[in-house]
Amino acid sequence: MIHIECRSCRGRLGTVVLDLGNQPACDFFPELGDPGPDRLYPLQMWLCSSCGLAQLVADPTVPDEPRGAEPAALVAQAADAVSRVAAAGLLPAGATVAEYGSPHGGSWLSLAMDRGLRQAADGEPADVIIDCFGMMHAADQHAALAQRAARLTSGGVLLLQYHSLETIIRCGQWNALRHGHYAYYSTTAVATMLASHRLSARTTWQFELYGGTVLLAATATTADGRDADAAVRSLLDAEATTGVRDPRVLSGLQSDARRRVAALRDWLGAERSSGRRVLGYGAASRAVALLSMAGIDSTLLPGIVDASPGKRGLRMPGTDIPILGTDVLRAGQADSVLLFVADLVTEVRAAFPEVEEAGSRWVVADAIGD
Question: Are residues 135 and 243 both part of a single domain?
Answer without folding.
Answer: yes
